[in-house]
Amino acid sequence: MTISGELLYGKVVLVTGASSGIGAAAGRVFAREGASVVLVARREKHLASLAEELTESGARVSYVVGDVADGEDMRRAVAHAVERHGRLDGAFNNAGIGGDQEPLHLMGDDVYDAVMDTNVRGLWNCLRPQIAAMLETGGGAVVNNASVGGLVAIPAAAPYVASKHAVVGFTRAAAEEYARQGIRVNAVAPGSTRSEITVDWYARNPGLEEAIHAVTPQGRTAGPEEIAEAAAWLLSDRASYVTGVVMPVDGGYVNR
C-alpha cells in the first residue's frame, strides 16, 4: 500500500464518460492527485482537448475513443491502459445517460433500450475486462457512478432509476466476489450535479432544479468536481477497508 500526499500517486486509473461533466472533472482531479489517467468516451474532440489540457499541466494522460455499450471498445480501452502503463490500478465507471423524463406508461421501448444498453450493459462491459486486468497484478479499486436514482425513486424516470439500481447491485455483487482477491468495488451516488444529464432535464422541466433544491438540505446543485473528489478517495489507498459501499454525494438528499 502506498499513501502519499497525493491520493492517487503512481496509480493508473481509467475513466469512462470522460468527455464532459463528472467524467471530465474526474480526469482533472485524478491527474492532480498523481494518477496516470486513461480517458474513455465517444467524442474524440472533447477527449483530445482535455488530454491536451492535462498533458500541458504535466499530467500523464492518454485517451481511447469508445462506447461503453460496445464490449470490444471496453476491452480495447483496458488493453490500452495495460499496454501503455503496465497495469490497471483503478477505474471510475462514470458513463451514463438519463433518457427521456416522462410518465412510464408513455415511454417507448427505445428509451428503455438506450438507457439499459448504456447504464447496465455498459457497466457489464466495463467491469469484466477491468477486473480481469486487476487480478493479473494483485488487485485494484473500482468506483461506479450509481446516482441517487440507485437509492431512491426519481419521478418520471423509471428506466433510469431501474438502471441505477442495477449499478448498485453490480457494485455490491462484485465487491463481495473479489474482496479476498484484493479488488475493492464501491459506488458514488450523486444528487443534483451540474452535468449534461441534469442540465437537459432542468431545461426540459422548468422549476425542477428549484424543487430539488427545496428538498436538499444543502439547498444547491453540486459541481462535478465534488463528485470526482469522492470517487478519488474511494479509489485511493486511504479507503483500503472500504468496499461494497454506495456513497451518497448529494447534499443530504437521501437522508432528509
From TrEMBL:
InterPro entries: KR_dom, NAD(P)-bd_dom_sf, Sc_DH/Rdtase_CS, SDR_fam
Keyword hit for Protein biosynthesis: no
Keywords: NAD, Oxidoreductase
Domain of life: Bacteria
Keyword presence, Oxidoreductase: yes
Record-linked Gene3D superfamilies: NAD(P)-binding Rossmann-like Domain
Domain Ketoreductase: 11-191
Pfam families for this protein: adh_short_C2
NCBIfam families registered for this protein in UniProt: PRK07231.1 (NF005559)
Family: Belongs to the short-chain dehydrogenases/reductases (SDR) family.
PANTHER family reported for this sequence: DEHYDROGENASES, SHORT CHAIN, ESTRADIOL 17-BETA-DEHYDROGENASE 8-RELATED
Protein name, entry field: SDR family NAD(P)-dependent oxidoreductase
Upper lineage: Bacteria, Bacillati, Actinomycetota, Actinomycetes, Kitasatosporales
